[in-house]
Amino acid sequence: MNFRIADTFTDSLAKLTGGEQKSAKTTAFDLHLNPANPGMNLHRVDRAKHSNFWSVRVNRDVRAIVHKTSGSLLLCYVGHHGRLGQP
Fold first, then answer.
1. Residue 77: beta bridge partners?
2. pTM above 0.85, yes or no
3. What is the pLDDT of residues 28-52, one digit of tens each?
4. What structural domains does the chain harbor?
């Protein structure tokens, strides 16, 4: 499986606190090792224009957005749950 990281992910990662960044990096590493792990708490993003966008729980408040197909996983964004996609 191709595992890629978008510039939008690294840009949004830089806006998190040090502890949140560490949690997001750990989640990214765990996704790379086993994206099918049920502990990853993957949920489809409601109202997304494309059905392959998923939300992944990083911690209680932070979520990552990924684009997942059978052959690839792209880390797109990471941020606070109530503010995903907002500046």
1. 65
2. yes
3. 999 999 988 888 889 999 888 889 9
4. 2-83 (3.30.2310.20)
